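R.M. (postdoc): so does anyone remember the format we settled on? I'll just put the structure tokens first.
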């Protein structure tokens, strides 16, 4: 058994570096920048302007600025990491290198949930915008004050768009990047023209006369970042990281493309939010002046910027408004097909580490992992069923994605400790300061998403744990299959029972009479999670125990943040037990403890040792025609 485990480990380590050599190195800096820009400018600018205004009023302008700054903080740490180790599917692969396979599994599973659901939300955005020009009830309907896709036409329309996204990915990254280059120019130019045009009809009273600049309170500024689509609109910056293994000059181009895309997007988004608020015509929207919260269920909810242009009362603006209808199909679609590629490469990255079937690495003639594209398509379509609404799905995607981004801040010091010899084309100055700032920025985005979103996110994250002990741990020889299967079944049965009895999942308040209060539910859920982690540790061999312990900081942090979310300013209580900003200060304290604990828990994993060793070996000659960037990383000190 020991010999088998050693051979398996050796195979996995070698495959980490070998796998990316099958990918074509065809993407330039422009391609990478436009992949990030194409993913950033999607449905967010079309719908989040109204969502943010309905959450916090004119102060949504500040929300966009703070959100962009938070994303820059996160991108800074990933800029060094991705330049040092440009790897396709890198965001799910880096945690394995710094904190082992159990942490890598939890982060990878969480990131997979977010990445694979984005094509669905972009398809929902297209259908929502198109529905503004169809007969009421044909493609969408309103449920609980929120627009949803209607069965059958609305859902089938979205599935058809998903098939289009899949086709563009299946036939190669060169086709995808070339098509995306031209589409992204459109997606950049149209939003810019839109806010410039709307500036000509601004109403200054909208910024101060209806409850002031922040009519819904200061805390709503931060809530809007996570729940209304603001952070979601910035999340595309990661695309340059995801395609790093297919870049010609990844060490230089990936960091520049990552940070540059966020800065450009911030300028565009702030301009659009100012334009929307100034262009708001309350009567035309069917909302009483000053009822900011009522915008979410208003006549403008399906196509807010289009409606703002039409309501301006200027003929040429009304004519230009039809351009936005076209863009309502192009912008979200452009992001959708990029993110289906992201989901594909997330599957690929998990497969490289043995966390998913090896078949997900199978390439077609265009050097695309085609099995992975099909999995991304099928699973993505399933998200159209429980959450057929852009406004409902956006909080889930934002929170799950931000939760994975904490690994940039906590991972960078570990890479500096154990992989100091690796060449760093971009080296982050004052990393001792920026690393915890990056970590806390990601954590606060998660916290600001609110209890109603967090409870669903947490349950989705924890339900992935049995898969680890059923699939990955036995394959590595950490545990015996029989006891592992039993532990996973007991945990899952308890998880289902707790979710049903608690009645909290996918709801703000328990609707079932006699459902558990939050205190009982939280204790039961925490006990179930800790039971699994302790049981996994007890069943594992020495190496398994070491890696399980390395994830303790992450699990404990999640369990501590959830009750704070319930009792704090972003929870369901009408009068929060812990008011803003005290709840946020407590969240920061929890985050700081988790950060330093996480850094101390970092491991010098065998995979990372292998990469450092290979970086010091003489580089082999590049195949003919691949001199543009297909060679391994240069030796240390070069």
């Amino acid at each position: 058994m020991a010999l088998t485990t050693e051979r398996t480990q050796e195979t996995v380590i070698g495959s980490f570096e070998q796998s990316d050599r099958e990918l074509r190195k065809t993407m330039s800096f422009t391609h990478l920048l436009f992949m990030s820009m194409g993913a950033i400018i999607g449905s967010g600018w079309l719908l989040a302007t109204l969502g943010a205004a309905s959450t916090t009023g004119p102060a949504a302008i500040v929300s966009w600025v703070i959100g962009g700054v938070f994303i820059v903080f996160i991108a800074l740490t990933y800029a060094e990491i991705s330049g040092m180790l440009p790897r396709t599917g890198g965001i799910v692969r880096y945690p394995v290198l710094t904190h082992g396979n159990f942490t890598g599994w939890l982060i990878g599973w969480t990131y997979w949930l977010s990445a694979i659901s984005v094509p669905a939300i972009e398809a929902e955005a297209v259908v929502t915008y198109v529905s503004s020009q169809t007969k009421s009830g044909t493609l969408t309907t309103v449920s609980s004050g929120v627009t949803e896709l209607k069965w059958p036409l609305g859902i089938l329309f979205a599935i058809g768009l998903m098939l289009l996204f899949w086709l563009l990915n299946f036939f190669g990254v060169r086709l995808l990047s070339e098509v995306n280059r031209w589409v992204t120019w459109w997606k950049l130019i149209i939003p810019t023209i839109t806010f410039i045009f709307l500036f000509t009809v601004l109403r200054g009273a909208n910024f101060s006369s209806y409850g002031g600049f922040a009519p819904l309170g200061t805390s709503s500024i931060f809530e809007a970042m996570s729940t209304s689509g603001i952070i979601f609109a910035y999340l595309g910056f990661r695309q340059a990281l995801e395609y790093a293994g297919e870049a010609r000059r990844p060490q230089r181009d990936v960091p520049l493309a990552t940070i540059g895309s966020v800065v450009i997007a911030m300028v565009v988004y702030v301009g659009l939010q100012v334009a929307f608020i100034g262009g708001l015509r309350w009567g035309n929207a069917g909302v009483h002046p000053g009822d900011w919260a009522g915008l979410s269920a208003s006549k403008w909810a399906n196509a807010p910027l289009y409606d703002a242009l039409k309501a301006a009362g200027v003929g040429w603006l009304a004519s230009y408004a039809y351009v936005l209808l076209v863009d309502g199909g192009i912008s979200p679609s452009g992001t959708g097909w990029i993110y289906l590629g992201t989901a594909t490469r997330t599957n690929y990255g998990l497969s490289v580490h043995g966390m998913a079937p090896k078949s997900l690495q199978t390439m077609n003639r265009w050097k695309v992992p085609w099995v992975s594209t099909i999995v991304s398509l099928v699973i993505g379509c399933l998200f159209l069923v429980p959450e057929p609404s852009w406004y409902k799905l956006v909080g889930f995607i934002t929170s799950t994605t931000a939760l994975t981004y904490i690994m940039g801040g906590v991972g960078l010091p570990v890479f500096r400790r154990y992989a100091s010899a690796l060449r760093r084309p971009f080296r982050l100055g004052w990393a001792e300061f920026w690393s915890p700032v990056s970590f806390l920025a990601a954590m606060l985005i998660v916290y600001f998403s609110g209890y109603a979103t967090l409870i669903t996110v947490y349950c989705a994250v924890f339900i992935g744990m049995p898969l680890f002990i059923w699939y990955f741990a036995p394959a590595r020889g950490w545990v015996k299959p029989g006891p592992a299967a039993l532990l996973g079944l007991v945990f899952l049965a308890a998880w289902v029972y707790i979710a049903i009895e608690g009645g909290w999942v996918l709801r703000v308040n328990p609707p079932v009479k006699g459902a558990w209060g939050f205190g009982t539910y939280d204790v039961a859920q925490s006990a179930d999670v800790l039971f699994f982690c302790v049981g996994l540790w007890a069943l594992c061999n020495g190496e398994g125990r070491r890696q399980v312990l390395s994830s303790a900081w992450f699990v404990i942090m999640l369990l501590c943040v959830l009750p704070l979310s319930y009792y704090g300013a972003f929870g369901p209580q009408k009068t929060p037990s812990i008011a803003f900003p005290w709840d946020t200060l407590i969240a920061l304290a929890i985050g700081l403890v988790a950060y330093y604990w996480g850094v101390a828990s970092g491991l010098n994993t065998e995979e990372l040792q292998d990469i450092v060793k290979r970086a010091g070996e003489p580089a082999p000659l590049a195949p003919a025609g691949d001199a543009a960037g297909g060679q391994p990383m240069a030796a240390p000190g070069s």
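R.M.: ...and that's the designed sequence above, right after the tokens. Also worth knowing: The chain has one domain: 16-479+540-615. Residues 1-16, 619-638 have pLDDT under 50 and may be disordered.
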